[in-house]
Amino acid sequence: MSASSASTSRWLPALALIVLSSIWGYTWVLLKQGLVFASPFALAAQRTVGGALALMLAVRLSGRSLRLVAPLATSAIGLVQVAGFVVFQTWALVEGGPGKTAVLIFTMPIWTLLMAWPILGERVRGKQWLAAACTLAGLLLIIEPWNMHASLFSKLLGLSAALCWAIGTILVKRLRSRQLVDLLVLTTWQMIVGALPLVLLAAVVPGPATDWSVHYVAILAFLSVASVALCWWLWIWILDRVPAWEASLSVLGTPVVAILSSRLTLGEEFRTTEIAGILLIGGGLTLLSLFGWLASRRAAVRS
Questions:
Q1: Alpha-carbon gap, residue 90 to 235, rounded angstroms
Q2: Structure pTM?
Q3: Do the Cβ atoms of 22 and 234 come closer than 8 Å?
């Protein structure tokens, strides 16, 4: 592989992560706004169904077969990483502000880091620990686990969503290491399977009728196509190219975007510790990208 192609292959996942973090970060504001028009579980079901339909259309237009490969593994991913995550994410959002809830859920890298080592054999080495420590320290400053003024129930919901996402991440990596699966088709089936219990839950749990205003339809369209369909496909694409722990740490840019968006749009206040945490996360992500770039340069020189 030439130096230019090695550099491109390294920076494409980084570019995808920037897009992912930006869209997912602003998604938290839109979710909070969407809850004005629909009940929590109705919103969860509608955006997941919309994402599944968008992905099915993408599969059709790309000429791929929608044949389900590895049904058990794919179903497990859909139930955990889509249904479980979306339920706890939406429920936690009802209990707390979007910026703070997003940051809490992004303890996901900690659980992914802990599980990826024994299950996938993905070890964090050398200077990478510095980037990991920097990002996680920033996350702790934003979460402030020593400050129990926030609802304990909301924190538990956020942690449950984080665990669902982390487990789903490990399951995706393990499936891809054992079997050749088309990423777009995998994402589509993951969304279809995950949407089914959400639709059932929305039908069973009582709630106000959805207000199908133009504003809500626009929010739902963005959530379905960009936040669900595009970003979940990007997430699996990224996982296929970098270690699970690295992808999980890199996506920590998302809560930073969520906090900034919440502050500008909804007026959520910053504290000094939150500002320090944002700076630490930014520094950790910069180090992670720098170490990755240096590693790709050394590999290119050796080849």
A1: 19
A2: 0.77
A3: no
Q: What's the number of domains the chain is made of? A: 1
Judged against a pLDDT cut of 60, whether residue 1 lies above it is answered with no
The residue to which tokens 């570019």 are assigned: 15
Both tokens of 103, joined, read 């940051």
Q: pLDDT tens digit string along 57-101?
A: 999 999 999 999 899 999 999 999 999 999 998 888 777 666 667
Q: What is the pLDDT of residue 66?
A: 93
Q: In which domain, by residue range, is 167 found? A: 3-302
Residue 97 Cα to chain centre, angstroms? 18
User: Apex CA 70: angle with CA 69 and CA 76, to 5°?
Assistant: 125
Q: How far is CA 50 from the centre of its chain?
A: 17
- C-alpha 106, offset from chain centre: 8
The per-residue pLDDT for range 139-169, each reduced to its tens digit, is: 778 777 666 555 567 777 888 898 998 899 8
Three-state DSSP class for 1?
Answer: coil
- Where does the chain have alpha helices with state H? 3-34, 40-61, 71-77, 85-95, 98-105, 108-120, 128-143, 152-178, 183-204, 214-222, 231-239, 244-250, 253-266, 272-302
Residue 263's pLDDT is 73
- Residues sharing a CB contact under 8 Å with residue 56, sequence separation 6 or more, in sequence order: 66, 188, 192
Backbone angles phi, psi at 157, to 5 degrees: -65, -45
